[in-house]
Records
---
Amino acid sequence: MIKTVIVGAAGRMGRMLVANVAANDRFELAGAIEYSGSPVLGKDAGLIAGVDALGVAITDDLAAVLAKKPDVIIDFATAGVREAASAAVAAGAAVVIGSTILTQEDRAEFRRLADNGGRIVVAGNMSVGVNLLFKLVKEAALILGTDADVEIVEMHHNLKKDAPSGTAARLAEVVCEARDWSYEQDVRHGRVGVVGERTKHEIGMHSLRGGDVVGDHTVIFALNGERVELTHKASSRNTFARGALRAAEFLAGATPGLYDMQDVLGLK
């Protein structure tokens, strides 16, 4: 049994993760964390997730939960991710991070933790299909070369706070890596007004928001006379939760290091 702690247990993804842990006989819910002052503190994590009571009360005391020596924490929260990862590694727990709002300082800290014995998976999207999309986009970028104009379109629900999505940003990074370009210099976020002709040295990025769309991503490779479009559409957040548990299982047998879902799925 993989003793698992869910950080952000009352959020949309947190509830889905708790439900998936409860339904998987290889996992045991060892803790459920929420922010100080949350109205669900003290309530059973299973009931909040819409499943049977699990006998695990939601708490804001991560240190107390880590003192019980869980195997892994899964964190999709938007705040305090760096601090939670540091505390988990110090306690000997592996870390799965699915947050899409990470700073360069966060990523540097994850690397430092991994270099000092931490086992960490960081992925802005844990869907198996999306991670296959990353691989296919890399291959298309290498084969089609700079003759293809690349445009990325992503759509998410109207409650999403960040844009572009972490997945769309990663797709642009994949193309940049294949072309030896720079994300910061060569990605163009939207167009408005008289902007002139499209240059050959740019990647267009476009973010749509509306309704309850879980996540759609399309990478367009447009050439003269033809175009290739690679698309992934998520219809349920459950795909992200299943991917996170797969990452947790991967870390159970992994050596210290900083990994992503390409590592988890053997796509490298």
---
Amino acid sequence: MIYPIVAYGDPVLRKVAQDIQQESDVDIKKLVEDMFETMHASNGIGLAAPQIGLALRLFVVDGKETEDEEIKDFRQVFINAQILEEEGEKWAFEEGCLSIPTIRENVMRHAKLHIRYYDADWNLHEETYEGMKARVIQHEYDHIQGVLFIDHLSGLRKRLLKGKLT
């Protein structure tokens, strides 16, 4: 099932998402499958549950829609993720967002992160990611924290984008 993407301005995008309980009524396997389908239909490489209207700590990543060799084969499900550490020099890269489709801006992000999360089979992982993988994870992680990529922009840049955002 393809979900509609929630657009900028919807309050769910600003909520800190709730943990998913393993015993919950949410059919995680079906939801994850639907999220990948929704993301691919929108030509995205990442999608967080708040972007489909669900304030849950879940996001998916699949780099197959990109030509970037570093993430082309990177497909992962992140449930109840917690970034434990971000490190390395911050670097700029132009980001966009399925929830804000008309805007792309350079965003500074750390080069490396250490994260703990569950996969779709409820296996616990603690891993380190670098480069583009780290960037995509940080972008999607922001969504489950109620943060959008535009929040990382300077005050001046935000003011210049205000008209487009409204």
